[in-house]
Known about the structure:
The chain is α/β, with parallel strands linked by helices. Helices cover about 35% and strands about 15% of the residues. The strands form six sheets. It has a seven-stranded mixed beta sheet, sandwiched between helices. A five-stranded mixed beta sheet has the order 9-11-10-13-14, with helices on both faces.
Amino acid sequence: MPKSNIRYQLGNHAIAQALYDSGVDLVSGYPGTPSSEIIEALARLKPDCHVEWSVNEKVALEVAIGASWSGARSAATMKHVGLNVASDPFMTLAYAGVKGGLVIISADDPGCHSSQNEQDNRRYAQFACIPCLDPATPQEACDMVSYAFNFSEKYEMPVILRPTTRVCHGKSDITISETEKPGKKIGFEKRPQQWVMLPAHARVRHKVLMEKQDIMAETLSSSKWNQLDIIKGAELGIIASGVASVYAREALDRLGIKASFLKISTYPVPINLIEQLLDSVGQLPDQVGQVLVIEELEPVVEEAVMSISGTRNVDVHGKDMVPRNGELNVSIVEAAISKFAGLDHTPHVPEGLSVELPNRPPVMCPGCPHRATYYAMKKAFGNSAVFPGDIGCYTLGVQMGTMDTCLCMGASITTASGIYHAGETEPICCSIGDSTFLHTGIPGLLNAVYNGADITVTILDNRTTAMTGHQPNPGTGLNVLGDATFMASLEDISKSCGVEFVEATDPFDVKETIHVFKQAREHKGTAVVISRQECIITARRRGIRLTPFTVDPDECQGCKACIRFGCPASSFVESTEEGQKGKALIGELCVGCGVCAQVCPFDAIKEVSK
Length: 610
């Protein structure tokens, strides 16, 4: 293999390269960690295909379905909770099937590194009867893309590729292989019995879906992704799936345990391989075979193994020894295998990890406009107001007391409406980001106006989708390739939903923003405040440099108003002299937004003299 075909890549970049090399015709998606880099990396490759950030995952999947039904290879990317949004077309797609290969890349996040839950989307695959590929490494994720397209086209079924965080964000040498690109004829073919899911057709297609299950399972079972290693005479058997199989292999090597081993990376699970492993440990004379199933999150494989074990002389263990919540690692798996094997286990502690690291909770960036918005919001509405929130950077507003709820994308407006209609008498002011508003916030706003909710909706418009890596959205006027496109007006959308009070404000103008919030609070009915200021990170990337601020120690009265504002650039030094107050300081993190100067009641904070 030429050296040029080996690249040190992020797992998501490898998936993007594989999409490119597979001759994909359309890729759509919505950003969400840990999946976001796939479309970004693909866009940088300038592929000869359509690539888009869609407004939400349901839209992304439906765009991909339309392309597939026209014979094109298509892919839809999203994080695990995004499949909840896309579940409506997803479940019916299983009945209708596809024409061009369609791969749904749904990245799971065990451990909730950047998510509101840690659902296991192998359950979705099981629920929808759709095949799922569960890569153990970035290389496998890369290689599975081409396999998934070919499989999808052969059986006219969508395929889920389910990388987890460690696969998406892990880096390794990736061998880029030549892939065979299909000769495709693009053109929509009318198949009303297949594409039109009215009841008479759906009943037939459900039967077709069931009839495909055995042959698809057989094909997946014999694929290279599942690997069985029978050790003759072994008393123990280990079955591990996805990235957990890598941990299990390493743990077995550390412990020096010899056990038959089955790595599973496809769903439906390979029944014949499981049977072979069970038989290998279940035929020992005068001894009950022991099998441990190691998998992250849900006991999907364990349940299958339990049902397959039947009357065999085998004890099956799984979630009685392996945690059902959180991300696994080698140490956790090693402890589970030790318990399973009856060994005394001394946890392996890598050198250097005994150091106690300081607790650094996530905070909004220095100069983040959301902090100023929340400051003004709370000044206008007061501590007793109710502040429903949403998903994004601004969820960190919980530390400012302006985030009382956070459920899922777009739920801030609807939960605010529910709180109002339940009879809450305190003012209600919810917040939602610009991208999230376009994702699923608009129906909530329309519903709020239609049903007479007396609430204030704050759209935090920082001109990007910041939380997931600064992707553009329809409100930014740019597409994923950086080309200018239509720019949606949040003001016009709000007015079209029937909102009578719509005001935009610059949160860096604190006095004016407080005034606008007070007006919104007094408005009877649904009000919208659009707090618009560019994300400080994108502004600095564009070369914008503002003059930083400093504290005049002679004017500072030690009141800590700037500290309570919460900017990481500000700190406070207590006085060592009895009866004297300390002084505030502004460090080099200051980006020059100037809000702290407006917050200071003694005019002690000023721009640094040039």
